[in-house]
Amino acid sequence: MPGTAKDKSAPTAAKSDTEAAAPRRRQARGERRISQLLAAAAGVFCRTGYAAASTNAIAREAGVSPGTLYQFFPNKEAIAIELGGQLLHRAQETHGQAFLPENLRRPLPELLDAVLDPLIAFNCENPAFWALMHGSGVPGMTQEHEELHSAMRARVRHALSTLSPEAAPADLTRVSNMILGIFKASLDLILATPEGAERDAYVAELKTVLLRYLEPMVTTTHSP
Amino acid sequence: MPGTAKDKSAPTAAKSDTEAAAPRRRQARGERRISQLLAAAAGVFCRTGYAAASTNAIAREAGVSPGTLYQFFPNKEAIAIELGGQLLHRAQETHGQAFLPENLRRPLPELLDAVLDPLIAFNCENPAFWALMHGSGVPGMTQEHEELHSAMRARVRHALSTLSPEAAPADLTRVSNMILGIFKASLDLILATPEGAERDAYVAELKTVLLRYLEPMVTTTHSP
Amino acid sequence: MPGTAKDKSAPTAAKSDTEAAAPRRRQARGERRISQLLAAAAGVFCRTGYAAASTNAIAREAGVSPGTLYQFFPNKEAIAIELGGQLLHRAQETHGQAFLPENLRRPLPELLDAVLDPLIAFNCENPAFWALMHGSGVPGMTQEHEELHSAMRARVRHALSTLSPEAAPADLTRVSNMILGIFKASLDLILATPEGAERDAYVAELKTVLLRYLEPMVTTTHSP
Amino acid sequence: MPGTAKDKSAPTAAKSDTEAAAPRRRQARGERRISQLLAAAAGVFCRTGYAAASTNAIAREAGVSPGTLYQFFPNKEAIAIELGGQLLHRAQETHGQAFLPENLRRPLPELLDAVLDPLIAFNCENPAFWALMHGSGVPGMTQEHEELHSAMRARVRHALSTLSPEAAPADLTRVSNMILGIFKASLDLILATPEGAERDAYVAELKTVLLRYLEPMVTTTHSP
DNA sequence: GATGAATGAGGATTCATTCAT
DNA sequence: TATGAATGAATCCTCATTCAT
User: Fold this and answer.
1) Are residues D83 and D1 in the same domain?
2) In angstroms, what CA-CA distances link B12 with B15, B16, D62, D64?
3) Do C and B share at least 3 CB pairs under 8 Å?
4) Is D220 found in the same domain as D114?
5) Total domains present in chain D
6) Tens digits of residue pLDDT in C50-74
7) CA nearest neighbour of A120 among A205, A20, A50
8) What is the pLDDT of residues B192-211, one digit of tens each?
9) For labelling alongside C184, which of A209, A218, B194, D90 has CA 20 to 30 A away?
10) Residue D160 is part of a domain; what is its CATH number?
11) By the CB < 8 Å criterion, does B63 face chain A?
12) Same domain, A68 and A82
């Protein structure tokens, strides 16, 4: 379901029984197109960044004409939004476990493992997600960047509020932002390091940083 | 020294006292223009990033015609390089102050204040520095960016090795990178927050993160 | 074949007869545009020369927007190359006719008529050819220009060697070059003269020059 | 004396005896400047052609500022006109002998030697002259190109009318144009051939062409 | 739905020419 | 006079977006 694509209301009920399956076909084809386009966009965004990515390049990479692209997305921004949304969704889907309530009840070191490991793995596998989160001053990007970002922040914030229930809201927000910032910075280092022991060492270092940062804030109430 | 501006220093000793300043006037005007243009560029780069910044916008912001801009800079990149170079120079001075040896001998909390405050202040006063250095995609900038980056890392590493003399070299490097990453991520947050209590809170938070991260590593030998 | 135009020949065999022509329509329109653009370019190149011709002027002359031009040609040079190539092709056909072996066996005055008339006619009908070939400074054109030139020289040389079989090779080359030079110089004059008696007089003059120049060299063996 | 440079009427007669020499100094300096500029223009025109030559480049080559250039020439065209004029003048001066009345009375072969040799020599030494005469569709160039050209044509025409007094005016003009065209075409070949025997052979060939072309036209009245 | 042609504003850059000093 | 800064229209080219088929 593309972000801002105008739904063409009821798709004019089939004219005869024999064509009953057509509309479903159409939609199926449409979604395939959308997937194609988003995959292409992911590739292009990754290679060139959002700003330098041209819609024509995305269409070409998807093997369709620019007109077709605009049949599904009203503009370039919408592609980024939808792509980011889907990636976020997949992140949540694949790693919803990360923020599983039961994880939040475990002692902090385990919690960090449980939350960070899948997130890191996901980002290593989906570099486009990362490219989109780096909203480096892109004109219209700010909005959906914010959306993506605040979705993540909300999850972090929620986890945090569980760990430290009596914290002031403003503090929660600020600390969540710091955590996300630290996470992103570390991810940069992790992604820049070739897979192996050194990369693992950076992962461990990230956990150390967060552990030491968060430990004093946690109201240790797990298992009396 | 901007791209094409050739200073003909000593323009054939003046014939009389009254004419002595005349040739210098020309250059004075030109240098004023250059400053205007660089200031304008700083503003535009800050607002839109390097890639999206248009030379026409810079010229307009500087109150001159596009042609004038090109009298002093051969192309857009040269503006960024010149601006980056100037800021870099000033940044290095700031860094020199920040990492003064006497600072490194103080207890960690004071050390963090002494080091971080000037760095943060500099970046708050020169937000363009950040915009340019932050992987703005300036073609010829990468080198200088790398130089600055490794200079900072070297300083951080050196400070770290003073605090924790027995640490392994690989660990020193890794921790330095983490510290720099945390610093940059926090700086993003700080710069994105309007001046005031909230920004200060972010500064404090950065110090908290680093304090908690580094405290366990420090070999506390400076107590009486 | 213009620069970026990709013809997807055989676009997935049409589903029904009525749709068979549809995909070709697209290309038809495109090719019509290309022709328009090339015609416009021919006009503009003729009037102003390649260097001074602006792509916007060509687009305007063709009645399209500049963007459209760039849909079919990647840059100004490509237009010149394509146009030059087409003209070259037609020129070669003309040359083929002009230098027909049977022509070379006729007495010199008739030979000159037979060879020169079609060449002159072609150039009068395609003045752009001249404008482009005349050292117009088209970067990628030099090669084709050279090819045409040496092709012409070879033909002239061959004709000459038939007329004057005992001439030394170096002399043949030199005389061929002279003939070509005289032809080109005269063509300049012919093209600069409005159609009519005066132009014809220049044509006659060219033939006179060549006749008088070549007559003494010809080994007259075709008399009964 | 530059072509279209506005003469500032009487240069305000000197205010006192001591300054009496100043105006002459000024003019001397001015003419030196003009020479500098024209020499620079010759170089630039030669290297890049008229159209691609920029006034700034000429000024730079002359070692003066663009403003200074415009103090002596109202625009680019005027530079070309003046340069062409001077070259023409030098051509006439140096080789006025070429068209000396006594030469015109000699038999055609000697006449051609007497006229062509100095002209060829001059053009080999002053390639800028050639570059200017090749008015390849230059916008404002046509005028002065025509002026130069018609000056040469007038000389040729005059020589021709001496050789063939009873020829019709239109024929004289046409033949003069042909001669000039042949001369220019041959000069191209001559200049393209490295100095030596082959070049000399081209010179000889040119003379052959013209000799055979003109011989039948000449009313042989020399020495009864 | 799909195609690819069409659009046109905008971007970087150049250059003939003018102007203040 | 000489300087060099200033101008701004024009150039080539790109790209997000729309339109006819």
Assistant:
1) no
2) 9, 11, 18, 15
3) no
4) yes
5) 2
6) 888 999 999 999 999 999 999 999 9
7) A205
8) 999 999 999 999 999 999 99
9) D90
10) 1.10.357.10
11) no
12) no
